[in-house]
Amino acid sequence: MVATLLRSVGRLTQSGKGKGPDLRLINLSRLPTFLIQYPRMKLLLIGSGGREHALAWKLAQSPLVARMWCAPGNAGIAEERLAKHGALVECVPLPAEDLPKLLAFAQQERPDFTVVGPDNPLAAGIVDLFQANGFKIWGPNKQAAQFEGSKAFSQDFMERHGIPTAKSGTFTDPVAAKHFAASLAGRCAVKADGLALGKGVLLTTSVREAEQAVDEIMVSKSFGAAGQRIVIQELLDGMEISLHALCDGKVAKLFPTSQDHKRALNGDAGLNTGGMGAYSPAPFLTDAELRTVGDAILQPWLRGCAADGIDFRGLLYPGVMLTKSGPKVLEFNARFGDPETQVYLTRLKRLGRTPPRELRRPARGPRTPVEQQRQRVRRHGQRRLPRQLSERQSHHRHRRCERAPKHQSLPRR
Q1: What would the DSSP string read from start to end of 355-398?
Q2: Fewer CB within 10 A of the terminal residue: the chain, N end or C end?
């Protein structure tokens, strides 16, 4: 399905034999209609945050969407109306992580397409489950979702395939982790390996702070099972930006840049948050520079996916630090960013063209004499439909014609 989505965004071509994929920018003001081949779509959106509200708000604007559910949704999503006929988006009280109940709901309501917002159901394998039961769903499968589900997996992948990243180490022993942090003079990012709602990163600037961060994650288990293994990266200096790329494992299409505000307190003195706001475009990169960054990161990533047999179909979101020695990847995410989605979809001015005429009704012949006549008019090029008058209407028309005064031409001046 993502291949179809990529074709709807615009035809992706190869830049030449052996040169890898052509990474071009998405023009957010000209993005064609989302999955235009479905004339009357039923959509299921999974998630409950601001990202999902932005997705629901934009998807509801499509004239193709006839019904939409969101599981579990939120109070704001429940107030969104479909552009097609004004019906409300329906929120259903099903947790995004409860895959059996979501599958049962899909089997009952038969949505044409499912869009997954958050990372947890992706890492749990919702895409594999839905596809195995014959449902079309958008997002990476469980294997591909490891890019976000495991920091250790991503770090190892980047090092093996030459993707620029920070110096790092992966540890299950707190003592070894502290020794490595000391080798970096305590200037490091200590990360829980698993999913922690975007908050599993502690930034330190001294050996003491680094040791406290290791203990907090591995000993005190402040992030639960996600912190059984940790990744420690050197602390990079520069400007952090968010990249988003629509991918199908073979080709990638870059979105414009964006930047979110992660750290709490003035002067970025606090802990990382899940994101306190965002804006787009970021003023730090021109379009040409963005393509260069995309080439440096996404081309080796695509080659690595092909080499490792990873079929990534969905949205790749690498966090990138612009350093003096070039762009370096901090981590990979396997879904739309939150809050970045809110600014991206605000910039998306329209969903695209009006559907072709053949998609505006079910694929069957005309059902009434009027539809049959209209079809003949379109086929033979008649400009007007013949109007059949009743006997009474015909009588009154002739009476009006008899009473009407003859036309008299006006004298010319």
Answers
A1: PPGGGSS-SS---SHHHHHHHHHHHHT-SSPPPPPPHHHHHHHH
A2: C
